[in-house]
Design goal:
This protein is α/β, with parallel strands linked by helices. Helices cover 34% and strands 24% of the residues. The protein starts with a strand and ends with a helix. The structure holds cytidine-5'-triphosphate (CTP).
Length: 358
């Protein structure tokens, strides 16, 4: 990583602290090295401007090259991520917005700013995005776009099946696997819709997000979001298999014993696989124990194209954790993975989809 500091940046922080953090020379002037404005951009996979002031945004939009950073931006031919940060009145200024519009139209990825308290004491849009969001945007910018042109629908998280207005039946799904799949598909250039049950995870940047609560709402969302042009449906959600026969309109009173009759919930996958013009469909099988054959039977029964088996009783796999060990099953065979991050599992599932798609 190479760091370029503008004169203004040097008023806030010393080059030495960024040299220590980046373990590399920090460049501050056009004349630090004879050809830095050509050589630094030529070596970079991505250029990130964080924080991006109104000044550098205006220079970049209009091709002004009067210091090292603006000159490097002009000679750079790769992906650029900018994270604006300034006072909210400056941010909302028409000229600034026009400049941002110009650079976004040239393919620059903008992340933030966030709304909130600003350094000047005022509140509004202008806060620099969280580091994690900037890293997410960088990941998006540098990933090979082998899924571009594909429309992918991913479901994630649990559903809630209400007994009365305050009580529901749900499950332990956190949504992590589905969110990882949606983000990986987005990074690889797909147009992604994420239909999510209740989850504490942050809504991913750059995906169409549909929030649902019950299995009925998820069914409605999936059926209406799956169009003729949908290439792939990934049902990573832990949809309820059963739901209470009816939802009491008022909170049930306490009594010694209450019995709730559970009825089979509508199967969402079958609604889609039953269509004549259907996308490629990937399901998930959460099993307790090494029941890979059972997962394969589920794939055949519901007419899926692929199923991802995971043993949720195994430490480090399944619910709530950041890792997973899975067996990916399709009509050609099985691939068992090591214990991997859910991000890596997501990429493997998408790789397998690409191998299967015409
Ligand atoms: N699924 C669905 N609609 C439901 C329930 C599940 O589309 N009402 C999907 C899930 O999103 C998942 C796959 O079906 O992709 C899981 O298949 P399922 O046979 O329901 O397996 P389990 O949920 O693991 O349940 P069980 O083992 O009890 O059959």
């Amino acid at each position: 990583m190479s760091v370029i500091m503008t004169g203004a940046a040097g008023q806030f922080i010393t080059p030495l602290s960024l040299e220590v953090a980046s373990r590399n020379k920090v460049y501050t002037s056009l004349f630090d090295a004879p050809m830095a404005h050509i050589d630094l951009p030529a070596k970079a996979d991505v250029m990130v401007i964080a924080p991006a002031t109104a000044n550098i945004i205006a220079k970049f939009a209009n091709g002004i090259a009067d210091d090292l950073l603006s000159t490097c931006l002009l000679s750079y031919q790769g992906s650029v991520v900018i994270a604006p940060s300034m006072n909210w009145k400056m941010y909302e200024n028409k000229v600034l917005q026009e400049n941002l519009g110009k650079i976004r139209a040239r393919g620059v990825l903008q992340v933030g700013p966030e709304k909130g308290p600003l350094a000047c004491g005022e509140e509004g849009p202008g806060r620099l995005s969280e580091t994690a969001d900037i890293v997410e945007a960088v990941r998006m910018a540098v990933t090979k776009k082998d899924l571009s042109g594909k429309k992918i629908l991913v479901t994630a998280g649990p559903t809630r099946e209400y007994i009365d207005p305050v009580r529901f039946i749900s499950n332990r799904s956190s949504g992590k696997m589905g969110y990882a799949l949606a983000m990986a598909a987005r990074d690889r250039g797909a147009e992604v819709t994420l239909v999510s049950g209740p989850s504490s995870l942050k809504t991913p940047l750059g995906v169409r997000f549909v929030s649902v609560e019950t299995s009925e709402e998820m069914l409605d969302a999936v059926t209406s979001e799956t169009g003729d042009d949908t290439t792939l449906l990934i049902m990573a959600a832990a949809v309820a298999d059963f739901k209470p026969g009816e939802r009491a309109s008022a909170k049930l009173e306490k009594s010694e014993n209450v019995s709730v009759t559970l009825h089979k919930a509508d199967d969402i996958i079958s609604h889609i696989t039953g269509r004549s013009n259907r996308p490629f469909v990937i399901g998930f099988a959460a099993e307790t124990g090494n029941n890979v054959d059972r997962a394969e039977k589920k794939m055949q029964k519901k007419n899926m194209d692929m199923i991802v088996f995971n043993d949720v009783s195994e430490p480090g796999a399944g619910f709530e954790v950041d890792t997973n060990r899975v067996v990916i099953i399709d009509r050609k065979g099985r691939t068992a993975t090591e214990l991997l991050s859910k991000d890596s599992v997501a990429d493997m599932v998408l790789d397998r989809f690409l191998e299967n798609s015409p």
